[in-house]
Amino acid sequence: MILATHSIEVIMAKAAALEQRSIDFIPADERYGHPRSLLFVWFAANTSITAVVTGALFVILGNSALWSIPAIIIGNAVGGFVTALHSAQGPRLGVPQMIQSRAQFGYYGAILPLILALMIYIGFYATGLVLGGQAIGTLVGIPHQLGSAVFAVLSTVLAVVGYRYIHRFSHFAAALSFVVFVGLLIRILSDGRIGQVAGEPAFDVATFVLGISLSASWQLTFGPYIADYSRYLPADTPKRSTIGWTFAGSVIGGSLAMTLGALAAALGGAAFGHDQVGYLAGLGGALWPIVLLAVICGKLTGNTLSSYGGYMSVATIITSLVGQNRVGPRARTVYVLIISVISLAIALAATDNFLSAFTDFLLFLLYFMTPWSAINLVDYYLVRKERYSITALFDRDGEYGRINGGAFLAYILGVLIQIPFMNSSLYVGPVAQLFGGAEIAWIIGIIVAGGVYWALSGRVRRSMTHDVDHARTLATAGASITPTSTSTGQGATPADVRTNTTKETP
Known about the structure:
Elements: H1 2-15, H2 37-46, H3 49-60, H4 65-87, H5 89-93, H6 97-100, H7 102-105, H8 111-140, H9 144-161, H10 163-189, H11 194-197, H12 205-220, H13 239-268, H14 270-274, H15 276-283, H16 288-322, H17 329-350, H18 354-383, H19 390-393, H20 405-416, H21 430-434, H22 441-456, H23 458-476, H24 494-498
Helix pairs in contact: 1-17, 2-10, 2-13, 2-16, 3-12, 3-13, 4-12, 4-13, 8-9, 8-16, 8-17, 8-18, 9-16, 9-17, 10-13, 10-16, 12-18, 15-16, 16-17, 18-20, 18-22, 20-22
């Protein structure tokens, strides 16, 4: 492990400067970029072979390909909007998404959502390695398992290089994926058989609603790390731009890939179900290597995000327990390698029953992550109204406390209330049975978790209102409110964010 870590660091140091920041605050003089870069990142991450397989699940579970398309668009739009709201937190706060969860759950309490987020990263990383391995194996003529190993190495290297080069690679991946996926969609629509198979079976409400839930879950599971890729943007980046570019990339990319998957599953049937990557390559005809390259690049973007987010989750958990606030490039490389090894082991073991396991995995994540997302967004937009103490996020004895019982109560209720509405292979709740299997548990979880958290946060809301009123009084009296610096170099003082200044001074 040590030798491998050193070798990767030497290679990366020669190729480019490694990202130096990790879970710590990004100072103002290190901020850069334009929010439109988020369009490419999230379009590339969503136009992946995994999203194509997710779209195919609509047909496999009983939807017609025709009715899958509106379900795909609705689910992606709803889930993508919720997720895009997280993206605006990056420029404003300048810290990774899950570090900000300490403000809701407490310094140690945030470890619980961090563990759940880590499960997301490893799960999507592993499933991506299966499909990415198929693409590499088909392209260069090696066993798919060996292709998965090669794909894991590529994902690891890009994650170790870090933020700047993840964004740069996504520009190429997004452009290639757009051209190839649109071309494949045209190829399918021009097939004379598609009209006969697209409308079968007939419309069914339950499977239509389930399809919406699947596509929404795809988007919502990006929530725990979506702000990680906007945190280097200048603090005064317009919120509308950050949300808008993220939403556009996610929804257009996800809808395109899933629509392609639904139509391919309807047209290809068993041939597509047996080998999704090979079937798409066959649709490309003489250009099949370009199709496989697009599959590899799109999936590589998604896997890199999972690897990068996974190491930050592990780093945040460990540093919380040992009282540190930074992780250097060497430690980051070790964490990324660990995440990659674990994900590869799962991928090699789960290949044979991939589609069934992936369906269960998506729904499982949806049940547990939507309450977290609701709590996080309610706290950011409605309770604290974007005003946070960055320094306190790194202080175990700071104002956010070690564990916030109110957040945990809201989270637990948000999970438990979903049980009667669940529809999975493990359990079907009585309400889901009553509605013929329609899946609406995630909507209930969002409403209950967010509502309970807001109701229990009255003291914080009153405190925030008092701070704003006090600041206005000082301003009216001619007092000067100037951001101050901290000696730790970790971020802004509480005064910086509570006076709602446009920038936090490190």
